Structure formats: C-alpha cells, structure tokens
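Thread: Newbie trying to understand structure tokens

Hi all, I'm a second-year student working on a class project, and my supervisor (Dr. K.) asked me to get a predicted structure for one chain before our next meeting. I've only ever worked with sequences, so writing a 3D structure as a token string is new to me. If someone could post the tokens and maybe explain what I'm looking at, I'd be very grateful. Here's the chain:
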Amino acid sequence: MSDNFFEKHDLSIGVFVVGIAVIMFLMFGAGAIGPLLFLTIETLFGKLTHEEFGTLFASSIVFMTLSIVIPNVLIIRGRPRAVKINKINVYFQLICYLLFLLVLEHKQTWIFLCFVIFPLLANWLMSSAKYLTFLPFTKLYARIQSCLDKA
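---
Reply by user tm_fold:
Sure, no problem. This is what the structure looks like when written as tokens:
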C-alpha cells in the first residue's frame, strides 16, 4: 500500500461542495431556530416586552453564530476533531425542532418546522465518504499554508 496522500484520497470538486454544503445546512437550520424560539416562549409565557425580545434575540443570534462559525473555521484550518462540535450542533438543532413541534400548534409554524430538513441533511453529509475525504484535505491545506508562512 502506498503512502501517497493523493492515492488514498480522491480529489474532486464534489468533496469541497459537500464541505461547504454542511456549513450552509447548519446555518440554515440554526437560522430558523430563532423565530421558533420566540414563538415558543410567547406560547408558554405570554407576550414578550421589547427588552426581553431584544435580549433573547441577541443572545440566540450570538450563541448560534458562534456555535457554527468557530468549529467550521477550526475544520477549515486543519483541525478535523471539531466535527464533533458540529455533530453536537446538529443534535441540538434536532432537539430544538422536536421541542417546537411539541409546543407549537399553529399552522404558520409548519413553514419554520420544515427547516428541520437542514440539520438532517448536514448530519447525512457529515457521515458521507466525500465529507470524510474533505477533512484530510483541509488538514493538508493547513500544513501547506503553515509551510508557506514560514518561508
């Protein structure tokens, strides 16, 4: 068996498309959690004041943004262990959607609940062979970049 990296891993545009698609699906799925969270809290506790709405909105945006951006930057910078954080993010999104499904009974929320397909697609793509090939390429890219920075 050869130790050549490129003989072990097939480089194609599909590998990079799958890597970017996982990031996009995580972002789309997390983007729908915000409005659903507000609808759920209003259903359970009544109307929100402007201050409560602003605080809740800002905290949910910051939390979801950081939980998606930081692990994916780490993955692209050559640390494939951050995929575990993405898996946790997918399961968190699925649990949130399950909670929303149990609490919300309005017809309009079904539009937002259709966004559950995005974390499911991200989870499916993360277990695909193309995504598992994407991870070593990001690690190789990070090594090449660090060598170029030293030169």
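A couple of things are worth pointing out once you decode it. The first helix runs from residue 5 to 8. Residues 119 and 127 are 13 Å apart (CA to CA). Feel free to ask follow-ups in this thread.
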